[in-house]
Structures are given as structure tokens and as C-alpha cells.
TrEMBL record:
Cellular compartments annotated: Membrane
Protein name: S15A2 protein
Higher taxonomy: Eukaryota, Metazoa, Chordata, Craniata, Vertebrata
SUPFAM superfamilies: MFS general substrate transporter (SSF103473)
Cellular component terms (Gene Ontology): membrane
Amino acid sequence: MNAFQRNESKETLFAFISAGDDPPKGDFPVQKKSPKLCGSNYPLSIAFIVVNEFCERFSYYGMKAVLTLYFLSFFHWDENLSTAVYHAFSALCYFTPVIGAIMADSWLGKYKTIIYLSIVYVVGHLVKSVGAIPSLGNQAVHVILSMVGLFLIALGTGGIKPCVSAFGGDQFEEEHTAERSKFFSIFYLSINAGSLISTFVTPILRGDVKCFGEDCYALAFGVPAALMVLALGE
């Protein structure tokens, strides 16, 4: 084979495609573009992620804002026991991200982990709210429901923590690095806004609103539960 034949054989390996031609199917997979927010480079899904995170942080910190008072005045526990249970719950919330990370990386993926553990989170808030209704059973029932609710909340809130921010970053295309950076700023703003607002609002719901003839812990826990339901619906 001479040099001309060798060059010709190499050229047959490539097919010239003009600007107006469609690439052969199967050879050049087309990546589907995600819907954009108001014509910008921000994916529409990040709006739901930011709202979800605001509601989740509101529900978590709103519940924790009155949790120790709940132990002291509703269960009539002493300060040592109330403080111990409060910090045990907080410690569990910091441990469960290990579980969420393992589930997301080795089993379900980030999206399904967020959905499934958010459902666990919602159930925990609902159980916790029901346990704060004075007319429902005796103190033993209230304590059992509250502890089960706290365990589910810790599993839910900790489990989704390692997934949400990473899942939000995955929504952006590679070339939109500036938009991704701004998203994380807005994302962490929503976290702090939800935490700050709930710290003021939830104690007001507990102290200024009366239900069942006393402080309304059921409402103080119920509003965060409702916001978590809204977050899951997003």
C-alpha cells in the first residue's frame, strides 16, 4: 500500500458533517437541557430546593426552640434530664448524616435519599405534634410519642443534610460556574433565614396562643410540621 492509499484509508474513518446536517443517531447523544428559571441560566429546580431548605430549617430550629421548655413544663422533668435528652437529640442529628451519605452514595442516590428521609422527617414531626396534645393519653404515651418523633426527626434531618447542597449543585451545567456559586450563597441564606425566623415565631406560638387550657405546644410543633409537609411537596 503506497502513501496515497494509506492517507485515503485514514480519511474514510471520518465523515464530514456540515453545519446544517444532523449528526448520526447513536453516535452523538444529545444532553437534555433542564428548564430554566425566568429565562436565566438557573435551573428551575433550584427554586424548589431553596424553598425546601428554608422550610426544613424552620421546622427543625422552630421545634428545638421550645423543646427544653416542653420537657420542663409539659413532662415536668428536671433540668438535668431535660438537658441530657436535648443534647442527646442534637448529637443524633449530627451522627445521622453518616447514614444519609452511605444511603446516597451506595444505594439510593441523592434524590431518592432526600425524598425517602424527608417522608421520615414529616412523620417524625407529626408524631411529635400528636404527642404534645394533653388530652391524648397519659404522660407515658406523651413521652413515647415524643421520643419516637424526635428519633425520626433526627434520622430525617441528618440524613438529608449531606445530599441537599450537593444535589443543588448537580443541577447546573458545567459552564455555569458563576450561577452555581450564587446558588450556594442563596442556599445558605435560606438556611439562616429559616433558622432565624423560626427562633422568634415558634416561642410566640407556644406562649401567646392557648390551646387545651395551657401553652400550645401542639401548635408550636404543628406549624413546623406543616412547613415540612410543604417542603416535601415542593
